[in-house]
Design goal:
With 188 residues, the chain is of the alpha+beta class. It is built from six helices and seven strands; from the N terminus they run ααβαβαβαββββα. It has helices at 2-8, 23-34, 53-59, 100-114, 127-134, 183-186, and strands at 45-50, 83-90, 118-122, 140-149, 155-159, 169-170, 176-180. It has a four-stranded antiparallel β-sheet with strand order 1-2-4-3. Strands 5-7-6 form a three-stranded mixed β-sheet, with no helix packed on it. A hairpin with a 5-residue loop joins strand 6 (169-170) and strand 7. It is globular. The two termini are 27 Å apart. Bound molecules: flavin mononucleotide. Residues 10-11, 64-66, 102, 120-124, 155, 168, 178 line the site of flavin mononucleotide (FMN).
Length: 188
């Protein structure tokens, strides 16, 4: 059921680092992005895969984790992603990429969830640093980064309270709460 898969597909930021996501799984996820919608069918996205400990260690410090969790600097060693997909826009194909990268990331995250993996897409990226570390040429715009692994955290959806606060938060048991607005508040 698509609803079950979408509910399972939360943004996960803590992983069991002993369960590695391998190259072939990452390639299967990119193939889902390949088959997804693209504005004017331009297909201007390109992808860099990372699954080795060395390359993963290079990508990790370039991501800004969970801006609302002020006292959390990101996952500790042992709970870090075991793979990344860096989503690039190839400017030799198109100068703008519309919402293609969002669609691609959602397809890949749903695919990951179906396989028992999970992750989080990152728009808040130290792009210059990542470009330097991975040797990404100016031909490519860094659009989003997908961090992936075997989730270990529990994430629950709550309804936004009367105060209207949409910030996600963690309780004493480290359960991650994500307030979502009510359906009737979305449909005009
Ligand atoms: C376009 C986009 C960019 C995001 N960038 C970041 C990011 O830089 N860092 C982060 O920790 N989470 C990031 N997220 C994850 C959101 O915080 C997350 O989707 C939101 O809290 C709702 O949680 P949910 O995905 O479990 O529904 C991003 C999500 C989207 C859609």
């Amino acid at each position: 059921m698509i609803r079950d898969l979408i509910l399972k597909n939360r943004s996960y930021r803590r992983f069991d680092e002993s369960v590695v996501i391998d190259e072939s799984t990452l390639r299967e996820l990119v193939d889902l992005a390949r088959c997804s919608a693209s504005g004017a069918n331009r297909q201007g996205l390109k992808f860099i895969l990372s699954w080795t400990p060395e390359k993963n260690a290079s990508v990790f410090p370039c991501l800004r984790w969970a801006g609302y969790l002020k006292d959390w600097a990101g996952p500790a060693e042992g709970e870090r992603p075991t793979g990344y997909i860096i989503v690039l826009g190839d400017t030799s194909v198109s100068k703008t990429f519309g919402v293609d990268h969002g669609i691609a990331c959602q397809s890949m995250l749903l695919g990951a969830a179906e396989k028992g993996f999970g992750g989080c897409m990152f728009g808040s990226v130290r792009r210059d640093e990542l470009r330097k570390r991975l040797g990404i040429s100016e031909q490519y715009e860094i659009l989003l980064v997908l961090a992936l692994g075997k989730p270990v955290e529990q994430v629950v959806i709550d309804e936004v309270g009367a105060d209207g606060d949409i910030k996600y938060w963690r309780d004493e048991q480290a359960v991650h709460h994500v307030p979502k607005r009510a359906l009737d508040d979305l449909i005009l």
